[in-house]
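User: I'm putting together notes for a lab meeting next week and I want to include a structural view of one of the chains we've been expressing. I don't have a solved structure, so I'd like a prediction I can at least talk through. The sequence is below, exactly as it appears in our construct file.
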Amino acid sequence: MYKKAVKHSFKVFSENLKAGRIGKVLLFYGVEQYLVKWAVETLVKKYVNPAAFSMDYQILDEDGVTCSRIIEASETFSMFSERRVVWVKDFAPLLSDSAKGYSKDEVKKLAEYLAESNDGTILIFSSEEIKASAVLPAALKKHGQCYDFDRIDRAELTSFARKRFRAAGIDIGPSALSLLIEATGYFNKESDYRLFHFANDIQKVIAHCGGQTVRREDIEEVVCGDMETFVFDMLDGISSGQKDKAFRILYNMLHGGGDAFSVIGAIVSQFEMMLSVKQMREDGMDLKSIHKRLGGSEYRIKKMIPYTNRFSVEKLKKILSSIYEVDRQIKTGLLDSQLALEMFIAGV
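Assistant: Thanks for the context. Below is the predicted structure for the 348-residue chain, given as structure tokens.
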């Protein structure tokens, strides 16, 4: 028996909005804060008169905002809008019944207020995480509409990208779009990569392709991220015997605002993965098996394989030992950060 697919909250929200089923109390939570922002902006666009924007749309996001202030903001009637919108962001009692600075009585009073809140106001609470059993979230689930804006699936992410390329008048083929999604690592469970990052990367690809069809090269050059691109470029210089190129890339990174520890962290991450990939390939594992074992972006692993072919396992271990020593020398003040990294590149 097939399990019926569960609609993502952004689709449920869109359907409720279209049907006029938006309640007066809402809870938006989940890792995709991009969708939270989108949902709030959609409500504001629909219900708040632009001429009364500053009066009928209120954001309460400062530390220590009181329960009584939230109630007061909700009870304020709109001036010229169909409904007033009040957005309470990252409110501490959503995470705990013993949040610092909030008594149980005042939180209870706010929770009780939700059952009889102002019909003319849409009161929105949002947080990336909530404690479902806490008093306030429990009351929001009972008296309001709750939307869990979790990660979207591949089909939804593909649609998200296509809409933005289409709006910009840019063509992107199926293979390029698939590469884009793989390159971002969005579906890596350990990744902090979110739709905010994806939307930004799409804009970078659009700018890079110069109004033409998106090419594979456009994605490879702009999507990996500045630090990861730096490490791959530096690896290219090191592994091809072009130390001058590696030095030049290092100076550009350090003098362009990058700090030594970010550089070291990126180098360590890259060489640790290279060592793992090298060892697994020598054990006869294919790309899909390696990806399943390591997680992360399959694209990143695939891109790394040609570099692993240029080093032996022993050489990779030696390089890692060297970069660990660089980190120690900088942290203990034995060497200047730039000098230590220069010595690392020279010795690889």
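A couple of points you could mention at the meeting. The longest strand covers residues 121-127. Residues 69 and 111 are 14 Å apart (CA to CA).

User: Perfect, that's what I needed.
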